[in-house]
Amino acid sequence: MVEIISIVSHFAGEESGKRFEHLIQKVGAHEPKQTHCEVFFIGLKPSARGKGIGKSLLKPVLDYADTKQVGCYLVSSSPRNISFYERHGFQKFCPIEISDSYSMTGMWRDFAN
Fold first, then answer.
1. Residue 9: how many CA atoms within 13 Å on its side-chain side?
2. Does residue 113 carry a pLDDT above 90?
3. Residues 37 and 26 in one domain
4. Alpha-carbon gap, residue 64 to 69, rounded angstroms
């Protein structure tokens, strides 16, 4: 993680590196302790939304988690994405307060038989 923070600092500036490190610490403190798969990042341009692309990116991870019989965890950075994740079996797991004006939502999905 130190190397990633260093890369962020190098390309985006020292202040951005510090904000990224703060974010990682806050998010990491809420990480589930049990064995799980994790959706690290899904991002789509607005013009690509609503076309099934997000579903096709998420499906292999969920299939893998189901095969291994482990839960799946992700952090939603935007409230508008929560309903998408809920349609794929995720439930709100925990709020993650990043600052006084910004929070994220940890979400969990049990494996499907």
1. 13
2. no
3. no
4. 8
Q: Are 82 and 92 in contact (CB under 8 A)?
A: yes
Model pTM score: 0.87
Angle between helices 2-12 and 14-28 (to 10 degrees): 150
For 48, the domain range is: 33-109
Are 22 and 58 contained in the same domain? no
Average pLDDT of the chain? 94
CA distance 65 to 68: 5
Cα–Cα distance list, 26 to 10, 22, 30, 54, 98 (Å):
22, 6, 7, 25, 6
Percent of the chain residues past pLDDT 70, beyond the cut: 100
Average pLDDT over residues 75-89: 95
Same domain, 69 and 21: no
Same domain, yes or no: 66 and 84: yes
